[in-house]
């Protein structure tokens, strides 16, 4: 008698698991679709206000602290940019060259373009921070 009960239990669990697995796969695929929609909505909440638009002048960066790091905010041709303020090569403060619109490290001589790339070494680049203007406030995206 106990073999009969065990066999029925196995069959029952096997069937129950198969049905649950099929149902959970359908639910998971539906949830994944709605999570993508929610993720798009939540992007609005991943921005931190760091300065006012009036604080920036065209082609002249403003140095701020963002998440414990030195960051330069810059407005060039109406576009907002954020760059780490420390040279990745020697960990020294970088400076802005207004005439060439580039960042410069006086310690190692590295020159960085507005896309963060280094002219001397393609393996070096400044960390860039996505920036935007929202209600006259400059915001950086929080990751």
Question: What's the structural blueprint in terms of helices and strands?
Answer:
Elements: H1 2-42, E1 47-52, E2 62-66, E3 69-76, E4 79-84, E5 95-97, E6 102-104, E7 111-112, E8 128-134, E9 137-141
Antiparallel strand pairs: 1-9, 2-3, 3-4, 4-8, 5-6, 6-7, 8-9
Summarize the structure.
The protein is an alpha+beta fold and 143 residues long. The protein has one helix at residues 2-42, and strands at residues 47-52, 62-66, 69-76, 79-84, 95-97, 102-104, 111-112, 128-134, 137-141.
- Low-confidence segments: none
Q: What about the largest sheet?
A: 6 strands, antiparallel
- Round the Cα radius of gyration to an integer and report it: 27 Å
Instruction: Give the C-level CATH assignment of the largest domain.
Output: Mainly Beta
| Corresponding CATH architecture of the largest domain | 3-layer Sandwich
| CATH topology heading of the largest domain | Rieske Iron-sulfur Protein
Mean pLDDT: 82
Order of helices and strands: HEEEEEEEEE
Number of strands: 9
CATH superfamily of the largest domain: Rieske [2Fe-2S] iron-sulphur domain
Distance between the ends: 61 Å
Query: How many discrete structural domains?
Result: 2
- Helix share, percent: 25-40%
Q: What is the percentage of strand-forming residues?
A: 25-35%
Q: Give the overall shape, derived from the CA principal axes.
A: elongated
**Total of helices:** 1
Q: Strands of the largest sheet, in order across it?
A: 1-9-8-4-3-2
